Amino acid sequence: MTPDLLLSFVLFAFATAGTPGPNNMMLLASGANFGFRRTILHILGISAGLGVMVVAMGWGLSGVFKTFPILHEILKWVGAAYLLWLAWKIATAKGIHDKDVGGQPMTFLQAAGFQWLNPKAWAMALGAATTYTPEGSGSLMVLVLAGTFMLVGAPCSAAWAGFGLGLRRVLDRPNTLRAFNVTMAVLLVASLYPLMTAFKG
Question: Could you give the CA distance from residue 93 to residue 90 in angstroms, rounded to a whole number?
Fold first, then answer.
């Protein structure tokens, strides 16, 4: 990979991982409700899940979806349904949880697995594999892309969780926290619109 191509990919990874989307809305809510330390596994799970997706796309899974586009359509709607369920869970969260009572942050495996139901993650992984993998590239190139995506994406995810943590003092009142969680749920649902329409056709 040339330095220019690597820089271009780093900017792509930063822009896609750092902008609002389902992952970052959930990280913001998790940081506010559970704190940064309890959100770390969620952050790491997102990073690992996206890395695995980039590898899978680069090693040929994108070709499967080109051959059988109905599979992508099915995943899109299953992912949307799951995101709506997550939005409901966020909206109905009872309060800020410093202990293992009344609520749980997303685990590493849950966060990693969620990427396969996240329309934005599919767009990110497909974009990385198709745009930044030159024709005839070997496995090493795909691994470099995946590793770069993980290294760039993790700090972006941590920043969103940190933003949520910074809001905890403001959200110490139950009514304020409820309003915040409902807002986060609405934004999570709203983040689906551009992702769903982008896959039409």
Answer: 5
| DSSP reduced 3-state for 141 | helix
What's the mean per-residue pLDDT of the chain? 79
| Higher per-residue pLDDT: 166 or 72 | 166
Tokens of 113: 């697995």
Q: What is the extent of the structural domain holding 154?
A: 3-93+104-198
With b meaning 16 or more CB within 10 Å and e meaning fewer, what string describes 19-42? eebbbbbbbbbbbbbbbbebbebb
Instruction: Label residues 99-129 b or e (16+ Cβ within 10 Å = b).
Output: eeeebebbebeebbebbbbbbbbbbbbbbbb
Number of domains in the chain: 1
Say if 99 falls within a structural domain: no
CA dihedral 167, 173, 175, 176 (to 10 degrees): -20
Per-residue pLDDT reduced to its tens digit, 87-115: 787 777 665 554 433 468 899 999 999 99
Decide if 162 is inside a domain. Answer: yes
Of 83, 62, 82, 35, nearest in space to 190 by CA: 83
Q: Quick check: is 175 in a domain?
A: yes
Provide the CA 7 distance to its chain's centre, in angstroms. Answer: 22
Note whether residue 36 is domain-resident. yes
Q: How far apart are CA 124 and CA 133, in angstroms?
A: 13
Tokens 């293992």 belong to 100
